[in-house]
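Sample A.
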Amino acid sequence: MSSNKATVSFKNDWGEDLNYITIRHRRGNDSDTETEATRHNVDAHKLIENFLEFEHDSSRDYWWIDFTTNDAKNYVIKGNFYCSIEDSDNGKVCLRIDKSTMSLYVEFPSSSNCKVSIYEFK
């Protein structure tokens, strides 16, 4: 099965600076296809282009994030959350965190967007 390259942008709409954020992508249930990137000192409302590159195919795209705010609160999403990119998205996806809704939004230029709850990890 052939795969296509894609890039993830990240938007910090949490309303405060982040100490760090890690984004992980996995194709299907194959741990050998995981790609992960971490950034430190992410300002509030900042958009980071090309945060992560990954390959996609017709498998489900699984996402996971882990971030800590400057006041040392750690947040994650549930495991095995999937939201799949389509060919019509031309290899573009934006992940956005929003504190007012406590959600991670997976946003595509063409196909359907998804969201999942963010919770504090203690």
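Sample B, a different protein:
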Amino acid sequence: MELFNQACIGKDAAGCSNLAEAYQKGEGVTKNDVDAVRYFQQACDLGRARSCNTLGVLAEQGVGSEKSYEKAAKFFQKACDLNDGVGCRNLGLYYVKGQGLEKSVEKAIQSFEKACDLKYGEACYQVGLGYQNGEGVTKSAEKAVQFFQKACNLKDSSGCFALGNAFLDGKGVEKSTEQAIKYLGIACEEKNGFGCTLLGMVYVSGQGVPKDAKKGISFLKTACDLNNTFGCYQLGLCYQAGKGIEQSDEKAITLYRKSCDGNNGDGCTALGLLTEEGRGTNKSYGKAAELYKKACELKNGFGCLSLGNLYQNGLGVVRSYDSAKSYFEKACDFKTAGGCNNLGVMFENGQGVPKSYSDAKDYFEKACALKLGLGCSNIGRLYQEGHGVRQSYEKALDYYEQACNMSSGPGCFRLGYMYYGGKGVKRSYQQAHEYWEKSCGLKEGVACYDLGTLYEKGQGVKKSIATAKELYGEACELGHE
């Protein structure tokens, strides 16, 4: 200790830093945070960058001195000025949060980029995110990939994950499943749960590789063991569907609960759905409502939508159209198409809101733009019936076709109805048959019934009473009276 003390007295920065660490850890001297801060300050003043960064951390925590984000920011700035990568990274985080200094995404990216140049991998990843999202810099998928590559080369697992994801989607780089698997594998080996999760999903779905559910599940299990909540949710989906593993609602419930406890909205929603249905657990609308509420608070649109449905129908909660509308609005804001569509239905029917075809159309259009076929079908119906818009069979047909292409049973049924009645198109029983057959396959009861009438009458098809009876039976099973 005396050697460190003498070195520090002699203006040796390393000596002061070593002395500070001794007081900080209580090694060879009585632990004393105040003295630790004093010697780190001397080392920092003598130009030891890492000591300046340490002072910033201590000021942030309020150790050895009064807690102060402003002082922490100044120490991180000095560390960065002295070319300490960690200090630059910490300074960048302060600019992102506006903590101890004025918030500036642009300055954050500049700090991260300097840290990256100083070989701090995590900072390279942060710069990549900036270019990926167009935050603080001009959006560029190509530059994002360059920084993700730098991060990965510097052993930052998040950079490897992001690089693998870029190769998988072909964003900023030529699409390559082989390269995606390579980098996701590196991320997973470095215990990055997201890397393991995405790798598992690739194999389970067979995305660009031969489908291998068992291999995929092994990666998902690794992800979940790493407490990656999305990995636990994905593994739960496999158990629920019996995909590559023995079906078990009970195990799915356990995994969804772990995911939800870790504040993953998908996990909370999935757990709520099984609880609502009484699968793998006791049926309870009340508990389902609590789970959906948590999911919604976690900005999960499907959670908001599901809670809105419960309020609309008075299941597990006191019926409230106001609450239903509120949760549907949140779902729609979170880009969940079902929430937008349900709002449209409420305005179309005047359910808890003033009846307004105009508002209904706006929400149906949002749902349609979000690729919900039912939303497109509902707009088509408004045009077909002339509700709130000038009647137009042409536009109705266009929306029905969009809906049917999105595998919407109602959309295909209505498209078939237009051909059957010759509304806006030349009457064609063959076309009606084609679309009603598709709609019936999508479990639309009325389509199965009308398809049956075609066979009963021999319209567009060879007459067959037996086939008609089968279709009428199927329609009945689907709830068509």
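Observation for Sample B: Residues 13-25 form the longest helix (13 residues).
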